[in-house]
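Consider the tokenized backbone below.
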């Protein structure tokens, strides 16, 4: 799952919905950097969190 994440994709953090929609900035190994609307830039460990991909309408 982690392999399909690319910069520019929109995601949500399943454990922190209050962070709002985030845009993937980079993915290096298991680490994904996401800029969330309400929480700013966060580094997510993809081994422990499966980000929810927001598909374009």
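A designed sequence for it:
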């Amino acid at each position: 799952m982690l392999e399909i994440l690319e910069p520019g994709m929109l995601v949500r953090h399943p454990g922190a919905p209050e962070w709002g929609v985030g845009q993937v900035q980079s993915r290096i190994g298991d680490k994904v950097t996401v800029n969330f609307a309400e929480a700013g830039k966060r580094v997510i460990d993809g081994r422990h969190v499966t980000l929810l991909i927001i598909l374009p309408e």
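Strands lie at 10-12, 22-28, 31-36, 40-45, 52-53.
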